[in-house]
TrEMBL record:
Gene3D superfamilies: Histidine kinase-like ATPase, C-terminal domain
Domain Histidine kinase/HSP90-like ATPase residue range list: 18-138
PANTHER family xrefs: ANTI-SIGMA-F FACTOR RSBW, ANTI-SIGMA-F FACTOR RSBW-RELATED
Database matches in SUPFAM superfamilies: ATPase domain of HSP90 chaperone/DNA topoisomerase II/histidine kinase
Protein name: Signal transduction histidine kinase
Keyword Kinase: yes
Keywords annotated in UniProt: Kinase, Serine/threonine-protein kinase, Transferase
Entry GO MF terms: protein serine/threonine kinase activity
CDD domains assigned to the protein according to its UniProt record, in alphabetical order: HATPase_RsbW-like (cd16936)
Signal peptide as annotated in the record: none
Length: 174
């Protein structure tokens, strides 16, 4: 993965688990908008929201959704956002060991453009080495100089998903 910081202390991280169903994409968009807004990165919100949406949609479509324990519900998919001085790193973790393949969709195809979109909107993208627990697919978006001074109300270094969802979920639904 690319370096996201120049060594300064301006690194923040937010992570949230989402259910393995189509509603999670819109929830992840709200999570991403809220997080980047709290970091003062409004100019990047639209780009990062599209990237996270495509990463999560790909995980839902192509990832092998394993179940948790005896109750049989699918394991969650994880969305992580890492803000460094120079880059925002968007990551989606799923349970599939299959690596993503960039394909060129036909002119009339209704699907198959997710990675093309990610490639065009990000400075770089890739994935972690798959293992028995799956992999993470990531995309890096450059942060413009002077952009993203954290707002006074932004969360500290780690923004926990539970805290976000319990305390700020009504804001995300707007």
């Amino acid at each position: 993965m690319p370096s996201v910081s120049d060594g300064s202390d301006q690194t923040e991280f937010a992570v949230c688990a989402f259910s393995a169903d189509s509603r999670s994409v819109s929830d992840a968009r709200r999570f991403t908008r809220f997080t980047l807004g709290s970091w003062g990165l409004e100019p990047l919100i639209d780009t990062v929201v599209v990237i996270v949406s495509e990463l999560l949609a790909n995980a839902l479509r192509h990832g092998r959704l394993r179940t948790c324990g005896s109750h049989g519900s699918p394991r969650p998919l994880w969305v992580g956002l890492l803000r460094g001085e120079t880059t925002v790193l968007c990551t989606v973790a799923d349970q599939s060991p299959d690596i993503p393949v960039l394909r060129r969709a036909g002119s009339f195809a209704q699907t198959g453009r997710g990675l093309q979109i990610i490639e065009s909107l990000s400075a770089a993208w890739g994935w972690t080495d798959p293992n028995a627990d799956g992999k993470a697919v990531w995309a890096a978006v450059p942060v413009a100089k002077r952009a993203g001074t954290p707002t006074k109300d932004s969360h500290p270094q780690t923004l926990g998903c539970g805290e976000l969802l319990h305390r700020d979920w009504p804001k995300l639904r707007e």
